[in-house]
Amino acid sequence: MVDSGGGLVPPVVYALESPSLVIYGDGRTLSIVKDDNSGGAVPARYQLTRVDPLAVAAFVSSTEASGIINPAKDFGQPPVTDMDGTTVMVHGENAPAKVSVYAFHDQFDKDVTADQQKARAALRQLIDSASNLAAGATPTPYSPDSVVVYDVGLGYGDRTATTVWPGPPPGSFLKPSNQSRSVACGQLSGAPATTVYNAALDNPGALWLVDGAARVLAVNPLPIAESCP
Asked: What is the distance between the alpha carbons of residues 50 and 25, in angstroms, rounded to a whole number?
């Protein structure tokens, strides 16, 4: 799994952040489809490809043996503020392991030591290799069978929402949350998940009309498990 996010971004953008690449043991591979015409903050749109599970197992085994995904690995901390971070996680025969790298961009490599530069280069190569596992496979559109809905909790008394919330009443499934993403969150599955996800793709900014009031409800098709009350 590869996930980049954080930094100085609007709360709704943070709530919509989702992994850019997820590879499952059975060979399913989800990768984000970049959409420069979305018009703003909308849920991630994924494409699905399938990889030989044996190739996935071999890749994971090699990755674990390399030791690059090690929390003790030093990737450096460039002296810049408000930048995003990148997290890479692997789970094979061993316990899940992940690393998080701050300001993981080429232009900041000059601000870390030579050994840290080597570690960053090795991680980039690993991410490229993971992405290339699905090279040549035919992608198909992906529709999530479940989504997480985050109530960002911002006041919008001075704004008018025109798009009616298409899902169940938020009070029926949202629960208070102490997560940094939201003040409340909840999960939808099946047809309601499909309905709100498709509607959210056409509603940049996630501003919805709910019982006559404007609310920001971010619909996130998280392809990995995330606890939500």
From this structure: 11
Other C-beta atoms closer than 10 Å to the C-beta of 42 total 18
CA dist 42 to 17, 48, 113, 216, Å?
9, 19, 37, 12
pLDDT tens-digit series, residues 158-195: 678 899 999 999 999 999 988 878 899 999 999 999 99
Direct distance between the N- and C-terminal alpha carbons of the chain, in angstroms, rounded to an integer: 23
- Model pTM? 0.90
Hey, what amino acid is at 108? F
In words, the CATH class of domain 2-132 is: alpha beta
Alpha-carbon distance of 115 to 60, in angstroms, equals 24
- Residue 5's contacts (CB-CB under 8 Å, 6 or more residues apart) are 14, 17, 84, 85
